[in-house]
Amino acid sequence: MYTLYVSRNSAGMGAHAMLEELGAPFETVAIDTSKPRTPEYLAINPTGRIPSLVEFDDAGSRVAVVFQSAAILCHLADRHPEAKFLGPVGGAARARSLQWLWFMAEALQPAYLMHFHPDGFTADPSGQAAIDAKATDLIDAAWTIVDGAIGAGSYLGGMAPEICDFYFLTFALWHKAHHRPLAAHPNLARALRGMTARPAVRRMMAASGKTLQL
Ligand SMILES: N[C@@H](CCC(=O)N[C@@H](CS)C(=O)NCC(=O)O)C(=O)O
Fold first, then answer.
1. Going by C-beta distance under 8 Å and a sequence separation of 6 or more, which residues neighbour residue 1?
2. What is the largest CA-CA distance in the chain?
3. Each residue of 165-175: b (16+ CB within 10 Å) or e?
4. Between the N and C ends of the chain, which has fewer C-beta atoms within 10 Å?
5. Which residues pair with 5 in a beta bridge?
């Protein structure tokens, strides 16, 4: 049994979709980000950020506590190897999937953070527009690389989704089409249409009130 702590629009959407795919028992607990985090939540995730995952055994004891959305995806994939969302330890497929996870954690997620919260990157309000413009360029450059890696495949993972596909789903759902349309990246757009057509992903999107804006 898993408890996934989420908030509206949080980086937990990929893990939420993966839990739906796995068919494992889980609940989501919504954190109100307008309020200070409780001591109980800070004991789970000392950064206070969202998402976090707690796993319980059949007796109801905690067996794992994980924060950082990329690490949560890795843990879920490792706990459910039959789903093949991450290849076997030591294999090339696993290395490739982890490589894309790290790339997106390093290049894509921080660029969206810059875009949504430019005030966090400068003390000078007049500099925020320039930061947002730079973030837009960085987002587009990262998606261009992802688009090239998907190539003629159905997913970044290849012919089936892997953890990296669940990870980039979150950022794609954050994207506002008026900004610079994701449809400019045809392989990415095809992979996203495939991801968002999956019944499990649709359940997550309905629960999260999200639509894909290409
Ligand atoms: N790298 C972290 C980022 C977590 C993060 O920044 N979460 C945001 C929501 S997407 C958050 O907690 N915002 C509320 C806050 O900082 O108080 C992850 O992927 O889990």
1. 24, 25, 26, 27, 55, 56, 58, 60
2. 56
3. bbbbbbbbbbb
4. N
5. 29, 52
How far is Cα 114 from Cα 207, in angstroms, rounded to an integer? 27
- Which two structure tokens, joined as six digits, stand for 125? 């309000």
This prediction has a pTM of: 0.96
Token pair recorded at residue 151: 């190539």
**Centre of ligand 1 from the C-alpha of residue 69, in Å:** 9
Nearest atom in ligand 1 to 113's CA: 6
SS3 128: helix
- Taking the C-alpha atoms of residue 41 and residue 25, their distance in angstroms, rounded to an integer, is 21
All domains in the chain, ordered by first residue:
2-83 (3.40.30.10), 92-198 (1.20.1050.10)
Kind and range of the H or E run holding 157? none
Q: What is the tens place of the pLDDT at every residue in 40-86? A: 999 999 999 999 999 999 999 999 999 999 999 999 999 999 999 99
The alpha carbon of 112 is separated from its chain's Cα centroid by a whole number of angstroms, namely 12
Task: Decide: 114 and 47 in contact? Cβ < 8 Å.
Answer: no
Nearest CA to ligand 1 atom 10: 10
Pairwise CA distance, residues 183 & 116, whole Å: 21
Torsion of CA 21, 22, 26, 27, to 10 degrees: -10
Each residue's pLDDT tens digit, 160-193:
999 999 999 999 999 987 778 999 999 999 999 9
